[in-house]
Amino acid sequence: MTDPGVPSAYVRDKRTPTPSREELRARIPGWGVDLDPADRPAHPRLQYPADTGAHWDFPERQPEKWPRERSVEHAFLTPVFGTAQPPKGLSGAVRKYAYARFSEGRLAHWMLLVVGDRLDAAEHRLRSFASTRPDVPATGVRTEFTHGGLRSRRGRSDARHHLLDPVVVAGPWLAAAGGAAVGVRRLVRAVRG
Amino acid sequence: MRAMVYRGPYKVRVEEKPVPVIEHPNDAVVRVTLAAICGSDLHLYHGMMPDTRIGHTFGHEFIGVVEQVGSSVQNLRIGDRVMVPFNIFCGSCWFCARGLYSNCHNVNPNATAVGGIYGYSHTTGGYDGGQSEYVRVPFADVGPAKIPDWMSDEDAVLLTDAAATGYFGAQLGEIAEGDTVVVLGAGPVGLVAAQSSWLMGAGRVIVVDHLPERLEKARTMAYAETLDYDEHDDVVVEMKKQTDYLGADVVIEAVGAEADGNFLQQLTGPKLKLQGGSATALNWAIDGARKGGTVSVVGAYGPIPNAVKFGDAMNKGLTLRMNQTPVKRQWPRMFEHVRNGHLTPRDMVTHRFPLEEIAEAYHVFSSKLDGCIKPLIVPSAA
């Protein structure tokens, strides 16, 4: 007889008893109602749905109002697409290049899109300074005071990396301010000769 | 109209935008009456999803009232109360024809690896989302469904993603009677995944998180055992101990790319963006499952690579199953479960914010302040 202290993993059968159906049904509302895989949605897999609501073989094409960027892994522009935020400025040029030049399988495709995102943010930030509603570094921070910022984080391990958030948010601003200060100083020196 | 607008990482606000118009004969325009912030919206909020453009309106969990319909729409009428799956899908491509609605090939020109999603960057098609007063809903005859009279607005909005994804996570696990199921994450998806695991015959359900209010919710809402990873030096070892050194038969990864629990993963992922996000939960799933077991992944990840322990998955002979949820496919059966009280998505709602306080809502949810598990957003025109 094997020592009963040997865990299940080292012998043939599980040694930890599973509760009976009756016990589980008494404790858990609805226990086992989907026990039969046939009761679960889309069983068997990849079955043809009876009716999806589509009344076309191929959808009518949405009008393309500007050259819509698309993955080169597509045969053509999909018949329906989003029209939010058309690409603009330098960020738009980077994004269009990423789509036109690299497939989704290439890391360069995604890295260029990330670069485009950062350029987009910088472009909008500059533009916001000329508007009546300039961007602020972080929003919603007042809830730290109204929704228990300190109390909520007490004893939580993720509070450690929350400390990095102000660095992540303020870092680019500080770097830009530092760069601008150095630039201005150099300019002043150059002008003074 | 008023709409949530992305202004860069950690910066969102409400702005005035034009009301969307019909752009395709099968479009509808829906007036949003209730929306939610999803955990996956935080990937966008933190600047982790490539091609998230300034000015984008997030929001893929919403319900509303049909305001306009295109010329070819047959199944919806103006005034219908509808719930809209987070997937945009045509219903007719090779993938939709096989029920893979989340993998539709006709709606996302920007990428072939992911389908169309409302308000989820240009990587998923460049559609503005539902954290706004109005939203364009493509393929109105295919995606939206009328909200049954008996269903609460809270259940309806949660069924558009979080609840459907939790149920789908359990389904992907192919749970057999008596299985030990570990659910990583006691957020909205994990809570419903835990509830659903019981429906599919689990013998034990253990939910792992570190936030006391979420673990409490897992116990009361999902009748689960709980494991607080902050209380253990190595949660994988604890999972092994709790399963008699076998590991879990099924692990459902309901966290995704924001996972806490490993400082280095957080630093290199969400903070410095040197990888697609934090793969902590995915690695715990791989290491916590038993050999020959199944890992179901419904936590969201972006297209940039992650530091995943793939060798462990290979050597353990794991079955890895995953997808974005094909929401509408799940609905008929889920509606029965909600009506019978076997699934109770509304129980996870902790906060409601007016749309005008969207910045506050994102900060509270992102930092998990004030016991926030699921925040709903109420548009001003609702």
Automatic annotation (TrEMBL), chain A:
**Residue ranges of the region described as Disordered:** 1-23
Q: Where is the composition biased (Basic and acidic residues)?
A: 11-23
Superkingdom, taxonomy of origin: Bacteria
- Listed name of the protein: Uncharacterized protein
- Organism per entry: uncultured Blastococcus sp
UniProtKB/TrEMBL annotation, chain B:
- What keywords sit in the KW lines? Metal-binding, Oxidoreductase, Zinc
Matching InterPro entries: ADH-like_C, ADH-like_N, ADH_Zn_CS, GroES-like_sf, NAD(P)-bd_dom_sf
What PROSITE patterns would the database entry show? ADH_ZINC (PS00059)
User: Which cofactors does this protein require?
Assistant: Zn(2+)
Q: One GO molecular-function annotation for this sequence?
A: oxidoreductase activity
Alcohol dehydrogenase-like C-terminal domain residues are: 188-260
Ranges of residues in domain Alcohol dehydrogenase-like N-terminal: 25-144
User: Which regions form coiled coils?
Assistant: none
Q: Which family does it belong to?
A: Belongs to the zinc-containing alcohol dehydrogenase family.
Matches recorded under PANTHER family: DEHYDROGENASE, ZINC-CONTAINING, PUTATIVE (AFU_ORTHOLOGUE AFUA_2G02810)-RELATED, ZINC-TYPE ALCOHOL DEHYDROGENASE-LIKE
Q: What is this protein called?
A: Threonine dehydrogenase and related Zn-dependent dehydrogenases
